[in-house]
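can u do me a favor
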């Protein structure tokens, strides 16, 4: 069963690249605490929909989200921190926090993992977006397999701008 609106962000961690220190852990509970965060998940860095539409949409809408009171936007994928960092650099995602969930433990704790072994991609995170206010999920948009609409920056913005 997946998380629901009103649930607290579960304990866990990500890895994030620091120019000074290399990969550093990011505590999930601390990251989401005392602020409004959008977290969106993609099945894989450098994949077509993720690179051509999903991440670029959040880059494009970043300032609009800030105007709505969003403090941070994070992208996660079941990829290692080096891949996430390289993908962020390649796409100009300097304002987006690229959070690696290398073993998929965080998406598993959310109940939002998927089996992509049929595509030689192993176990990944589903495509979704969530908004957390002080560590509590206030909005949750989970895509059906193969879809990309609900978790797009445009849709998330339209939901928050009501």
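np, heres the sequence
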């Amino acid at each position: 069963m997946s998380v629901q609106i009103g649930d607290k962000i579960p304990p866990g961690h990500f890895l994030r690249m620091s120019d000074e220190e290399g990969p550093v852990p990011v505590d999930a509970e601390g990251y989401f605490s005392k602020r409004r965060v959008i977290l969106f998940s993609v099945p894989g860095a450098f994949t077509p929909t993720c690179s051509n539409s999903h991440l670029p949409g959040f880059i494009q809408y970043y300032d609009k989200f800030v105007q709505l009171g969003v403090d941070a936007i994070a992208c996660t994928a079941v990829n290692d921190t080096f891949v996430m960092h390289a993908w962020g650099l390649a796409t100009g995602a300097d304002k987006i926090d690229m959070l690696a969930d290398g073993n998929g433990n965080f998406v598993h704790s959310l109940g939002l993992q998927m089996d992509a072994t049929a595509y030689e991609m192993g176990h990944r995170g589903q495509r979704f977006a969530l908004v957390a206010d002080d560590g509590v999920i206030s909005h949750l948009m989970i895509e059906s397999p193969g879809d990309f609409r609900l978790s797009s920056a445009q849709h998330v913005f339209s939901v928050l701008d009501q």
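The two ends are 28 Å apart (CA to CA). hope that helps!!
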